[in-house]
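Run log, item B.
One chain of 282 residues. Sequence copied directly from the ordering sheet:
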Amino acid sequence: MERIVKFDEVVEAAAALCGKAACFLPEDVKKSLLAAAEKETGELGKEFFRQYAENFRIAEADKLPLCQDTGFAVWFVEYGTDVRLDKGDIYAALDEGTRRGYTRNYLRKSIVSDPLFDRRNTRDNTPCIVHLKLVPGDKIGLTLAPKGGGSENMSALKMLKPSDGRAGVVKFVVDTVVSAGGNPCPPTVVGVGIGGTMEKAAILAKIALLRKVGAPNEDPRYAELEAEILEKINASGVGPQGLGGDVTSLAVHILFHPCHLASLPVAVNINCHAARHAQIVL
């Protein structure tokens, strides 16, 4: 039986998530940062972790943005096949929700209308990015993952040869994170997409960032690979804010997909230590 959801309900839910994601760090991220602080031995690194903890506590208490870069609004939508809006469409609803949310919460608007020739600020942080997945049922699941420019700029994709194998994947991911240095505000969460096509690998890498921080891959082979890559990244000494230390990344999360026999696409999407996201089911 079809369920009708009001367009304005989606808009208001999206607007609320904009404020929540900007000001409230998810519990798994907070716990991961506090645990990492115990592992850090450098005095400068320890001081950064103290500041991270103070920052997320102040942001939560005073409902202030965790970072001045409140990011590109990237939405992941699980849209039930038995639900429809009473008017308009999900894309319009999320644009309007983003517009209201960023305006009401006084969040920085960071989107320019044209990437090359007319870089004028759209003044409402739209248009947003929407990744839509159709699922059984009559619910709409919304997840917002605001993506800051500093971490996004350090992301990368490479079309490896199948013969590059595991070693090639490890080297590419580690080199990408280490060469990023302090630009993505480490300690980072590293999303890795392996397989599919060029664009599929990139989307997988971004979705991988939504996993609970440090939760191991369900496939033991990929869980072992995540652990190996994380160990090598942290052995690099890049450290918090790129100024040296034991903890360069909090976690490495991998998602994979079948691919062409001639290909081995690998994408790396990096999140800063404030790995923001918020979700709701309507």
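Observations after the first pass:
- Residues 149-275 form one domain.
- The mean pLDDT is 97.
Flagged for discussion on Thursday.
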